[in-house]
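Morning. Coffee machine broken again, so started the prediction first thing and wrote up yesterday's gels while waiting. Chain of 198 residues, entered below exactly as on the submission form.
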Amino acid sequence: MVKLSRRDQKERTRARIIKAAMGRLAVAGLTKVSTADIAKSAQVSHGTIFVHFPTREALLTAVIEEFGARVAGRLHELAQNGSGLREILIAHLQGLIEFEPFYTRLVIEGRLLPDRARQTLVVIQSAISLHISQAAEAEMEEGLIRKTPIHLLFNTWMGLVHYYLANGDLFSPRGSVLLQHGPALIDHYLNLISAPNR
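Came back before lunch.
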């Protein structure tokens, strides 16, 4: 058996806490889960949580950062390869599907987040907006989609996704809303913004 260094053990424990926190927050809500619940789920002592995260807000921020790094990472990779808007939207949904229960909580309860955690979420949304905007601007130049202010393009897309997530109990009561409805959302959105006669 390979013995882990103290640093490796600490990083693994931190990652286990973040993963457990994401799971508990997704199930019980951002404001209701206690650090004791998270410690139990991560199979660590309650005090261990505070060795890694000085406050509950710091833990919540770390969980949101982990979510954002995973979702934005795939978009960044595609954007560097010059992918089209459809590919960027597909990648965005695929990233969200991996964390759908947690992200749904962020959509529903985002206004209740502490300031630092909320600012972290805004930074993540800005990174996603950048990649969607770059692909959209390239397709506007090609005449594939109508010229529209970028903030409206992004907010329309996010509003569509968020509406379906916030009402997932209606649209997909027993499964992933984005798996079930994602392709239709992408087609509908692209149809809305397509240039006339396309």
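The chain has a mean pLDDT of 92. Going to sketch it on the whiteboard this afternoon.
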